[in-house]
Amino acid sequence: MSFSEKVVLVTGASSGIGAATAVHFSKLGAKLALTGRNLENLTKTAEQCASKPLLITADVTKEDDLRKIIETTIQHYDKLDVLVNNAGVIESGGIETTSLEQYDRLFNTNVRAVYFITMLAVPYLIKTKGSIVNVSSVTGIRASAGLLSYCMSKSALDQFTKCVALDLAPKQVRVNSVNPGVVVTNLHKRGGMSEEQYKEFLNRCQTTHALGRPGQPEEVAKTIAFLASDDATFITGAILPVDGGRQLLCPR
Ligand code: NDP
């Protein structure tokens, strides 16, 4: 698998799955554009990459920042081959405890931002017959208690993947999704879990995931690269669990 001469844009590359994806694509020879809000963390990702990436600090909830991401990437590399929509946030809460503000926060980052940056990227992806990989979640496929807005946002993202895959298939642009189970990153602690709760949450993966463990960011990164690669030229509209068998099990 080689991405030599391919331009790959990864959102949320300053941490977790996005950072691992950036490093993995760099090892496969890609030219990278990496975005996130935290420049210090983006720089740490860049230091692990095999070649020097273009770094763009941006907040994906701001339309002007999304325009800046695409414009800066095109100005720098003159093309775009792969868009990885990875930036995302989580917050807990069910129907009795979720505010509209929380709903808006989750949908603005996990859905609206993906919708708009994809719109901006599509003309360039059509030119290269490129591809898109969206980072959804196993919670887009099955319900998870106390995560109402997050689950809804990921289900919406999955439907976005399928609809856009159909829209762009005649232009030979492929659109796919990875749907991770629990992966060891900062996501849940940033979403409000204490260290203690997170430790317990990871321990529970022994029973909540068929393979008996949480995933590592690199395991998701490799699947993202596969879906974006020339090894997957007949795959589009796929909603692919990368979840250690999480969605096969009954809820606990
Ligand atoms: P992290 O919290 O480690 O990383 C999240 C990334 O998203 C960071 O780079 C962060 O950038 C970026 N981000 C969040 N909000 C914004 C924003 N408004 N503007 C720009 N960038 C933003 O989490 P993960 O790596 O775990 O999450 C990556 C994706 O994987 C998410 O979509 C998540 O829903 C999904 N996922 C994760 C799972 C897990 O168990 N970890 C399971 C299933 C899905 P910065 O810090 O610079 O603001």
Task: Explain how this protein is built.
It is a single chain. The chain is built from eight helices and seven strands. With 252 residues, the protein is an alpha/beta fold. The protein has a single domain, classed as 3-Layer(aba) Sandwich (Rossmann fold), CATH 3.40.50. A seven-stranded parallel β-sheet has the order 3-2-1-4-5-6-7, sandwiched between helices. β2, α2 (39-48) and β3 (54-57) form a beta-alpha-beta unit. α1 (16-27) packs across α8 (217-228) and α4 (100-128) runs parallel beside α5. The mean pLDDT is 97. It binds NADPH dihydro-nicotinamide-adenine-dinucleotide phosphate. NADPH dihydro-nicotinamide-adenine-dinucleotide phosphate binds next to α1 and α6. Residues 6-183 form the Ketoreductase domain. Keywords: Oxidoreductase.
Name of the CATH homologous superfamily: NAD(P)-binding Rossmann-like Domain
Q: Determine Rg (CA atoms, Å).
A: 17 Å
Bound molecules: NADPH dihydro-nicotinamide-adenine-dinucleotide phosphate
Largest sheet: 7 strands, parallel
CATH fold-level assignment? Rossmann fold
Strand fraction: 5-15%
Shape: globular
